[in-house]
Amino acid sequence: MERSLHFIEHIIEEDLANGYTQSQLRFRFPPEPNGYLHIGHVKAICLNFNLGERYNAPVNLRFDDTNPAKEEQQYVDAIKENIQWLGYQWDKECYASDYFDQLYTWALELIDKGLAYIDSQTSAQIAEQKGTPTQAGTESPFRNRTPAENRLLFEEMKAGKHAEGTHVLRAKIDMASQNMLLRDPVMYRILYKTHHRTGDQWCIYPLYDWTHGQSDYLEQISHSLCSLEFKPHRDLYDWFLEALSPLDTLRPKQREFARMNLSYTVTSKRKLADLIEGGFVTGWDDPRMPTIAGLRRRGYSPRSLRNFVEAAGIAKRDNVIDMSLLEFAVREDLNQTAPRVMAVLDPVKLTILNYPEGKTEILEGEINPEQPEAGTREFPFSRHLYIEREDFLEEANRKFFRLTLGKEVRLKNAYIIKGESVVKDPQGKIIEILCTYDKESKSGSGTEASLRKVKGTLHWVSIEHALPVEVRLYDRLFKEEAPDQDKSTDFKSHLNPDSLSTLVAYAEPGLAFSKAGDQFQFQRLGYFVVDPDSTPEKMVFNKTVGLRDSWSSKN
Question: Which of 459, 490, 522 is the last residue of a domain?
C-alpha cells in the first residue's frame, strides 16, 4: 500500500497543479560548514533528497559559508562524506562564497535605492536599540546617511580601510515591525579572517539572512525547505527579493517543517562542540554523539537512519522523538543483516567433567536465520568454556531457566549440560562451575539432531580458543530527557557519568579476521560493530544496540 503524502508533498502537488512545471522543481540541502552533521540534519537531508527522487528533480548541496571565523574545510569534507554515506548524491555542489561578488553588487543597489545604510554603532548599541517584541526599536543615529556617503563607506569597508567592529551595513526596513528580524537587520560586517575558499580576498562578509535567500534565488530553488525556527525569517527573505525587483525569474517558496528533536541528547552544533572542547567526549565521531559520524561509528546503518526518519514523519509542529524509535529502526535493520556469533562479556569458567581433556570439536551454527542462504560458520568446542556469570545461580527458583546446580540447559549449537558443583575463591566468589554433559544431546540437523528439549540455552566460548576483545558499552549521554530545556542550568550538568564502560570480553576466534565497520549480533547480548581503533593485536567492538528496547525501561 502506497504511503500518504506529507504536507510538503501536498504543497508541491498543489504548485504543480497551479502552474509550476516539472522542470522548475529544484531542491537543496544548505548546511553551514562549522561542525559535523547530526541526527537533525538527517531529517533535512532525507526530506530534500527524497523529494528529488520522488519528483525526478535535481538537489543542490550548498554550503552557506559566510563565517570564516568558525568554518573549516574539514567540515565541508565531512558533510559531503556523510551525505554520500547515507546514499544520496547531489546535482550541483554550490557555495554561498560563489555569490560574494553578486551579493556585494546587490548590496550597492540597495544602498543606492536608499534601502541600506552604514551603521557605526557598536554591536551592543545596535542590540539595545532593537527594542523588544512588545516595544518598538529606536532608529540608529546613522540611519539617514545619504546613499553617496553609505556607498563610499561600504566601498572603504571592502577595501580594508576600517577596523573590525567600526561599521556594519544594515537594511533600512522598519524599526517598529512586530517581526524583530525586520528591524533593520545587519547585512555585512567587517572580519579580517581567512576564508577556507576565498582566502583573504574579502574582509567584509555577508550575514546568513542576507545570503541565504539570495543564494536560493540564484540557484533557482523552487522550494526552500527550512526548520520551524526560520519561519520568522521568511518575511525578511521576501523583503530582500522584493527590494531588488525586477527579478523576473522564479522566486523560491520557503516552507517550514518541524526539526528532529531526539530525547536524551542535544542537537546544537555549538553545544556538541562544547562537549568536545570540554573533553566530555572524544570527538565529533564519538559513538555517544548524535552526529552522523558518531552514529556511523556506533554501528547505525544508512538504511536504519533513513527508515527512522520515515517512521518519525514530516510534521508542522516541533516534537521530541523518543530514542526507542531510533533504536527500533537500527535493530530491525541489523536483525536482517548482522551475522550471529558468540561472545561472553562477563566470563566465569565452566568445566565439563566428563568431556575428554585436550579434545576439540568443530561445531557449526547458522550465520543469520533471516538469511538461510548465508550458510553456517564453524567454531571450536572443548572441555573448558566461558559462560556469562549472570547465566548461573548456585540456588535459583523455578522461573530461572539458565544454569543452576542439578538443572540442565543447552549450550548454544552444542550439548546439554547439568550443573554439579562450584569452586569458590577464599572470598566466596564462584570462580569455576563444574558440569557434566550428555554426549548424545549434540545439536545438529536432520537425523543427528538431539530429540531432548530443555528450556534454557546459553551462549559460550571455548577458553583455549577464545579471542580476547575490548568491548565498549554505551548508555545515554544525558540523564535528563531534555538536557537543554532548563536555561537556568548548564546542559552539561545533566551528563551521564556512566555513558561509557569498557571491558575485556571473549569471542569466537573467527572474529579475529573482522575489519572496522563489520557488524555482528553477539547472541543473547545485542548488536556490535568493529571500531576503527581495532588493530590486529587488539579487536575493539562498540555496542550498537540491545536486542530489546533498553530506553523505555529506564524512564
Answer: 459
For cell 566470563, the residue is 347
Residues 145 and 285 in one domain: no
406 in helix, strand or coil? coil
Predicted confidence (pLDDT) per residue in 409-451, tens digit: 999 999 999 999 999 999 999 999 999 999 999 986 433 455 6
Residue 343 CB partners (closer than 8 Å, separation 6+)? 459, 461, 469, 471, 505, 506, 507, 508, 511, 522, 525, 528, 541
Task: Judge whether 154 lies within some domain.
Answer: yes
Q: Which residue(s) pair with 540 in the sheet?
A: 470
Give yes or no for a contact between 391 and 402, defined as CB atoms under 8 angstroms apart. yes
Read off the amino acid at residue 206: P
Query: For residue 262, is it within any domain?
Result: no
Q: How confident is the model at residue 485 (pLDDT cuts 50, 70, 90)?
A: confident
Q: What is the C-alpha radius of gyration for the chain, rounded to an integer number of angstroms?
A: 31
**What is the per-residue pLDDT across 155-178, written as a single tens digit (0 to 9) for each?**
999 999 999 999 999 999 999 999
Claim to verify: residue 238 and residue 284 sit in the same structural domain: no
Q: How many domains in the chain?
A: 3
**Crossing angle of the two packed helices 302-312 and 39-54, in degrees rounded to 10:** 80
Query: Residue 144 and residue 142: Cα distance in Å, rounded?
Result: 6
Burial 187-206 (b: 16+ CB within 10 A, else e): bbbbbeeebbbeeeebbbbb
Cell of 470: 575490548
Q: How far is CA 484 from CA 39, 267, 492, 546, in A?
A: 16, 10, 8, 26
1 lies in some domain? no
HSE of 383, CA atoms in CB hemisphere, 13 A: 7
Looking at this protein, which amino acid is placed at residue 246?
Answer: P
Q: Where are the alpha helices (DSSP H) in 21-87?
A: 39-54, 73-85
- 413 and 481 in a single domain? The answer is no
Confirm if 420 and 434 have CB atoms less than 8 A apart.
yes
What does the pLDDT read at residue 447? 39
Tell me how far apart the alpha carbons of residues 14 and 359 are, in angstroms, rounded to a whole number.
74
Tell me: do 289 and 425 sit in the same domain: no
C-alpha closest to that of 299 among 325, 263, 334: 334
Percent above pLDDT 90 for the chain: 91
196 lies in the same domain as 289: no
Distance CA 483, CA 45 (A): 25
Neighbours of 527 (CB within 10 A): 25
Secondary structure letter of residue 525 according to DSSP = T
The amino acid at 77? D
CATH number of the structural domain spanning residue 424: 2.40.240.10
The residue range of the domain holding 495 is: 269-338+469-554
CA distance 497 to 492: 11
Residues 46 and 99 in one domain: yes
Q: Report yes or no on 524 lying in a domain.
A: yes
User: Dihedral (C-alpha) 111, 114, 115, 120: value to the nearest 10 degrees?
Assistant: 70
Cell of 340: 550471529
* Integer angstrom CA distances of residue 63 from 34, 92, 105, 389: 10, 11, 21, 52
Q: Where are the alpha helices (DSSP H) in 162-283?
A: 208-218, 233-243, 269-277
Catalytic site positions? 32, 259, 269
